[in-house]
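In full, the data:

***
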Amino acid sequence: MHKKFSLLAAGLVFWTLCSSAARAEDVKPLRALLITGGCCHDYAQQKDLLKHGLETRANLVVDIVYAAIPDGAPATKPPLPIYGNPDYAKGYDVVIHDECAADISDPEIIKGVLAPHLAGVPGVNLHCAVHCYRIGNPAEPAAAGSQRALWFDYLGLQSSGHGAQLPIAINYTATAHPITQGLAGWTTTNEEHYNNVQIFPTATPLAHGRQTVKDKNGDPKENDYVVAWINDYHGTRVFNTTIGHNNATVNDPRYLDLVARGLLWACGKLDDKGGIATGYGPRQ
């Protein structure tokens, strides 16, 4: 009798493992749309670094919309085909904004970019995406809910600029959050440190960055700003990081781990302890 019970238990364990493996194999990959292009960055290389880095960290397929800047055209107004098409994210589970469109300020265009997120499509925003779609003086705090705050309401944070490229020491402050569990602080190579004009009540900081610079007298000064955070955009999950100017950072496994976990969280694929939902981890 004991032998029969042991065989039955072993069979149940085997069936459970096989069933779990089958379910993992049956899970369709998340579909991500990466929007990129514009001023001041090596997007031609970074789009491929991001695609490869994210697809090796999650069950994910990244499609790319990339706008190279035509000769003589304003680099801060990339000719992205999403403009004027509020349905550009149809069929996608998440949109990754990695564009640099600092001088696109038409409210109707901005509303079109925001339309999928307002409808519930999660967002991931990297580096210069935080400096996009600004109306008026970005250094002047914009009132939440106002036209000037269209993009800031979505991000959950307003930034207006950065200083010299120098290393940034990153410290995860929300260590119990699903995104940050298992991640360790690190120091980048030379990077741009974005300032924080204001942080909106809907945002939750995840990491701070400290960068030592020189003030106008040449004396050392430490800038301490939020560099990674999440936002609740009318019920839609949004993950953001201001890190990611140079290729060395974009290709850094620690950066890619952060972005991948932020994306999975935005899509609801991390549990409260930071575990990845069955079938959405790295593809074998």
In short: Residues 1-22 have pLDDT under 50 and may be disordered. Residues 30-162+196-205+227-266 form a domain with the Rossmann fold fold (CATH 3.40.50.880). The radius of gyration is 21 Å. The first strand starts at residue 30 and ends at 38.
